[in-house]
Amino acid sequence: MNPPRWSGTRAPVVGAGPPVTGTRSPVAGGGQPLVGGGQPLVGGGQPLVGGGQQVGPYQRLWAADPGSWRAAGSAWRAVLEVVDRRRAELRAAGARLLAGWSGPAGRAAGARLAGPTAVLALGRPAFIEIDQVLAEFAAALTRARALLAAAVEAADAAGVLVDRHGRVSRAPTAGPVARDAGPDAGHAVRAVAARIAAALTLAETADRTAAGRLTVLAAAARAGWTEHAGRAGRPGGDADPAGGPAAPGGAGSLRPPGGAEPADVRRWWDGLTAAQRRWLVAHEPTLVGRTDGVPADARDQANRLLLAERGPGALAERGAALADRLGSDSGQRAYLLALDQAGDGRAVLAIGNPDRADHVVSYVPGMQADLPGIGAELIRVDRLAEQCAVEAPGRASAAVLWLDYDAPDFVDEAASDSRARDAGPALHRFQEGLRASNDGPPAGQTVVGYSYGALVVGTAARDHGLAADQVVLLGAPGVGVDRADGLGLPAGQVWAGTARDDPIQYAALAPGELLERLAVGVFAPLAGPLAFGQPAEDLWFGRNPADAAFGAGRIPTGPGGHAGYWTPGGPALAGVAEVATRP
């Protein structure tokens, strides 16, 4: 398993290379495919092009194909199915052997069989981790190519020359239309050069990071995934003759402290060896997958392993859209941070790795959100992730669908705040976990509540506090407080928007006002503002957060009713992304 080298890929053939002065750059992600049928080349040195010309980083970035790296990661993830089949065969063979063979020789034979089975078990998370590494590398290349495309577009607009090697210079002043060769032109040259350098630095940093992570994985694979762990991969433990996990040896260190806060969980996790973490992901996926404060990549590995153990049809009847998104190569990679198939079902899914993002936005959906109907919510969170990338193309963003509560199914259930109150502690803990598991400088965290989800966000912020830099409330029936400062966030960090034609502000009224408006509306059987007049100031769960007196910043909205906030290209989606990606 060789580390990736975007810098080791061949540039396009002469005539199909990077743009030069006066030409437009190809759009990000739409450049020339890599040599070799679009497959990434790994581990190579610096190939030559044409008559011996050395390929530079500018050309290599234009030639890089992020989609090929995503496909390569998916191929590694698919190996897990093959490994699981072989592991099942070995376990079955060991069981048959031990059934008819007793005594010291039989026990010795069983122990020998347990070794390969345990190695396969410990290696299972690695195939998912390779997919994670390559997907994150592809995402970084996509951002770098977007920055490079923007730099070349800026050069073209300013009349600045960029040659095939990325060198920047002033445009000639001769000709029918003379370019300005004064100080402003020099400033434009420096500005374009800086933007190109930023794109190349981003790609080179991503290359080194991915290569380093894969090198560590390769070393662990050569050591049988055990490193300094005990026999059969159990840290401090012994092999199980049937090939299962051994009884704990010093098990206390392999469990987080009872009642630990997410920050304490992260400190516990950091105190484990790599072998211990790998063992926990492989053999205790339920614990790892649900624990806030554990890094997102480990939780994703654990939850995907749980799904693999349940078989390929685990989400077929209730959650097919989730299964499709987990296996998709389009857009950013999905990280499964929690899954509960009981009842209506619950799931927490991140688009992009929140632990390595500069901006993380958590979306809390509203009424009727559940696992069987999760497809609509996945579309919304994907659109939010895409819009964040548009607003901040050079910075990493992650969008999280937080459906870890029992959303109301019917109007009478939505008339009570009990489900919002029940959800509050879990949302508080999840946001604290995002803070704790972040790998770099603190990410900007935004929480978006939509419809009844806005009440969930407001209630959690009011009663428990939220680890959030910004809170956005869309189409809210009230949020449990009458003023923005009741949410416990500093001034200027609460935002709200409700569309003029959203019926929630005409139907979700405070009881007395609702009766008055219905009395008017009964003589005018029209929906929305024609029936009920102006939007209400007092809603069922408090003052309308979109009302000026609430004190929130305004998210622009357009037509589209209660679902119009998620329209691609619409003002609300752009407004939320702009707030979420503020430096």
Q: What are the defining features of this structure?
A:
single chain, alpha/beta, eight-stranded mixed beta sheet, two-stranded antiparallel sheet, 14 strands, globular
Descriptive overview:
With about 575 residues, the chain is α/β, with parallel strands linked by helices. Helices cover about 45% and strands about 10% of the residues. The protein is built from 17 helices and 14 strands. The strands form four sheets. An eight-stranded mixed sheet has the order 5-6-8-7-9-10-11-14, with helices on both faces. The chain has a two-stranded antiparallel ribbon with strand order 1-2. A hairpin with a 5-residue loop joins β5 (about 335-340) and β6. The longest helix is centred in the N-terminal third of the chain and has 56 residues, at about 105-160. It starts with about 45 loop residues before the first strand and ends with a helix.
Summarize this structure briefly.
46% of the residues lie in helices and 10% in strands.
What is the beta-strand fraction?
5-15%
Quick one: overall form?
globular
* Mean of all residue-level pLDDT scores: 82
Q: Total strand count, please?
A: 14
Portion in helices: 40-55%
Q: How many whole angstroms does the radius of gyration measure? A: 27 Å
- Low-pLDDT parts are 5-17, 20-52, 174-180, 228-251, 517-534
Largest sheet, spatial ordering of strands = 5-6-8-7-9-10-11-14
User: How far is the N terminus from the C terminus?
Assistant: 37 Å
- Please summarize the sheet with the most strands: 8 strands, mixed
Total DSSP helices: 17
